[in-house]
Amino acid sequence: SYELTQPPSVSVSPGQTARITCSGDTLPKKYAYWYQQKSGQAPVLVIYEDTKRPSGIPERFSGSSSGTMATLTISGAQVEDEGDYYCYSTDTSGNDRVFGGGTKLTVL
Amino acid sequence: EVQLVESGGNLVQPGGSLRLSCVASEFVLSGYEVNWVRQAPGKGLEWISYISGSGGTRYYADSVKGRFTISRDNAKNSVYLQMSGLRAEDTAVYYCARDQMIGASHTGALDIWGQGTMVTVSS
Q: Pairing relation of β-strands A103-107 and A9-12?
């Protein structure tokens, strides 16, 4: 089955730039999406179609994709950005969807 | 407020069955594709099923194929997940999530999520 690979954890100091990567063989052809999940809460969409930011998501969140890797960048990370981040995409058929394993972001 | 509300989670014995419901509020669900996503305690998100707006197309993750069935009743603004042959590894919070639409285009993103309903499979 198709897999997306993320680092288990990323740690930065407040105000620094956090980068979370997601690798997968179909990412050159399929969009990546990113979700933020805080403890005990439902996930929230922060980036869709590789680079687009939903309304209400702070400008410090941005996305990019090149080859088999998509990247979520948080420029000037804040303490409130701590949480788990998941990438999401589809297999080549577009039928099966998959989440990456998740990355725990610590900002301290 | 635009939202999805899940219900039906419970404690069930291995081999048992359960039906989860997902009801939409403040929007018409029939225009949207819907997914079920689960999260086992302390683990990551797992996509498990998708249904098109008409209900004519359905997909399942290998982990639930043949045991779970997704359906919808657009007259009731609802989507369901019928689960049978439940196993301990199905223990999780189950979320329903709406596929985002911008204008008439599907983006593939899950933009509205419910709060989740807990399913525990244990004897």
A: parallel
Q: Which two tokens stand for residue A90?
A: 């589809």
pLDDT in tens, B77-115: 999 999 999 999 999 999 999 999 888 888 899 999 999
Number of CB pairs, chain A paired with chain B, less than 8 A apart: 61
What are the tens digits of pLDDT across the range A40-96?
Answer: 999 999 999 999 999 999 999 999 999 999 999 999 999 999 999 999 999 988 889
Query: B35, A88: Cβ pair inside 8 Å?
Result: no
Which residues from A are below 8 Å from B35, CB to CB? 97
Kindly give the pairing relationship between strand B68-73 and strand B18-25.
unpaired
Integer Cα distance of B75 and B77 in angstroms: 6
Query: Within 10 Å of residue A45's Cβ, how many Cβ atoms?
Result: 23
Residues of A in contact with B70 (CB under 8 A): none
Q: How far is B97 from chain A (nearest CA, A)?
A: 10
Cβ–Cβ below 8 Å for A43 and B111: no
